Amino acid sequence: MLLATFPVGQLQCNCSIIVCPETKEAAVIDPGGDPQEIIDRCEKEGYKIKYLLHTHAHFDHIAGARAVKEKTGAKICLHKEDEWLYNNLNKQGMMFGFRFDEPVPIDHYLQDEEELKVGNVKAKVIFTPGHTPGSSCFSMQEKDSVLFAGDTLFHGSIGRTDLWGGSFEQIIKSIKGRLFELDDSTEVIAGHGPNTSIWNERRENPFVAE
Question: Which of 47, 81, 96, 194 could cross-link to 42 by cystine, CB 3.0-4.6 Å?
Fold first, then answer.
């Protein structure tokens, strides 16, 4: 699996591109802004974007999805519990002084435990409500274990739960009951900020350390 992660948009969401090296098929995780940069990176390398995978529907994680889909035909994927947030993209943006184009319809509703194939690479969905009702993470079990955690788990912190649909009790349950079941060696790519690991967060994160 090939992987590139870089910040996009006004709030510097970590956007990731995962690629099957054999087929050049790709998925973009959290295209939250700067859609032309995402498109250019893939076109330069000859990648064909199959999926736009969203960990949740806050504006800083979905704002670039429409433009990338319209250019590439990729399928927009999101858990159904966050569809109401997705459809209120502009209302979310207005709260922070931003305006966006209306979102296009979701193509595929993510299901807990389903596996999405990107060429010969598989991304497993882990449903982790708490930051939002439909928050999900994506687990890649290739040569190394990688988790795309969105805003559920950060280096030394967790996602905020004081926004629409957030629940502190649920996010703690999701982290301890789902994410901490992964191997300690799993690299965690968070929705913002630096990478971490399950080992580190299990032992050092003040919100959920065991």
Answer: 47
User: Tokens 């590139």 correspond to what residue?
Assistant: 4
Architecture in CATH for domain 2-204: 4-Layer Sandwich (3.60)
Distances (CA, A) of 119 to 47, 55, 101: 11, 20, 31
pLDDT in tens, 42-87: 999 999 999 999 999 999 999 999 999 999 999 999 999 999 999 9
| Token couple for 124 | 């497993």
Strands (E), the chain: 2-8, 13-19, 25-29, 48-53, 75-79, 108-110, 115-118, 121-127, 136-141, 145-150, 153-154, 157-158, 187-190, 196-197
Tell me which residue has tokens 């040569």: 143
Q: Where are the domains of the chain?
A: 2-204
SS3 164: coil
What are the pLDDT digits (tens) for 192-206? 999 999 999 999 999
Phi and psi, residue 123, nearest 5°? -115, 120
Region at 180 (left for phi over 0; alpha for psi -120 to 50; beta for the rest) = alpha
d(CA 75, CA 72) in angstroms, rounded, equals: 9
User: pTM score, two decimals?
Assistant: 0.96
Non-local (6+) Cβ contacts of 10 within 8 A are 33, 60, 96, 98
